[in-house]
Design a protein that fits this description.
Keywords: DNA-binding, Transcription, Transcription regulation
Number of domains: 2
Distance between the termini: 59 Å
CATH class of the largest domain: Mainly Alpha
Number of strands: 0
GO biological process, one term: negative regulation of DNA-templated transcription
Number of helices: 10
CATH topology of the largest domain: Tetracycline Repressor, domain 2
Protein name: TetR/AcrR family transcriptional regulator
Helix content: over 70%
Shape: globular
CATH architecture of the largest domain: Orthogonal Bundle
GO molecular function: DNA binding
InterPro entries: Homeodomain-like_sf (IPR009057), HTH-type_TetR-like_transc_reg (IPR050109), HTH_TetR (IPR001647), Tet_transcr_reg_TetR-rel_C_sf (IPR036271)
């Protein structure tokens, strides 16, 4: 390895160290309360060094979301690569994969959801490359859902009269709403209504798929 390659490698390691530290800070304190000073202290770098690699707190947050998106996509890819399911089953399974992601990687899940819900303003100080990569990764997931709907229509098990893009957006929205509600109200649902999360998810997925079945 030459000198330039070694320097690039060291730069990438340091950059990832900063993102690792930022995850700890953002996930424990929340994005709004976290500061670049917190990130620098956790990473054990000077604040000036942090700004050599990232020009804002928002940019680092995008990098965290990118990690989350890549992880979710890898989980979807694993299912798709081994699946011979029909289109409507794939739509349902995609929801199950997403729920699994929310359970096992809740910090990434909510990092992505906070951005998608428009709770954070990333309109300033963000390089187009970071923003566009997030959009591109999000579109990969959206395309999977659209492809599954199209497959189901070809197989004549999903209604032909649906608008694929509108249906995909609404299915995504309903699913996120269900996950969020079940997480926030889990104790109440279990103690008062004696229903488990898994049981309600089964009912929810059945209801959603019935709306698009032919």
């Amino acid at each position: 390895m030459g000198v330039s390659e070694r320097k690039e490698k060291e730069k990438e390691i340091r950059r990832n160290d900063i993102i690792d530290a930022a995850e700890k800070v953002f996930f424990s304190k929340g994005y709004d309360l976290a500061t670049m000073d917190d990130v620098a202290k956790t990473a054990e770098f000077s604040k000036r060094t942090i700004y050599v690699y990232f020009n804002s707190k928002e940019q680092i947050y995008f990098e965290i979301m990118i990690r989350g998106y890549k992880l979710l996509i890898s989980m979807i890819d694993e299912y798709v690569s081994n699946s011979k399911d029909d289109g409507i089953t794939k739509v349902r399974k995609l929801g199950e994969v997403f729920f699994c992601f929310s359970k096992h990687h809740p910090n990434y899940f909510y990092a992505i959801m906070n951005y998608e819900n428009g709770e954070l303003d990333f309109s300033s100080g963000i390089p187009d490359k970071s923003r566009e990569q997030c959009y591109e990764l999000g579109e990969i997931i959206f395309q999977y859902l659209s492809d599954f709907l199209e497959q189901g229509i070809r197989e004549k098990i999903i209604r032909e009269d649906i608008d694929i893009k509108s249906t995909a957006i609404l299915l995504w929205s309903f699913t996120v709403g269900i996950f969020t509600t079940l997480k926030k109200k889990k104790n109440y649902i279990v103690e008062v209504h004696h229903k488990s999360v898994d049981e309600l998810l089964e009912v929810a997925f059945n209801m959603l798929t019935k709306t698009i079945e032919k």
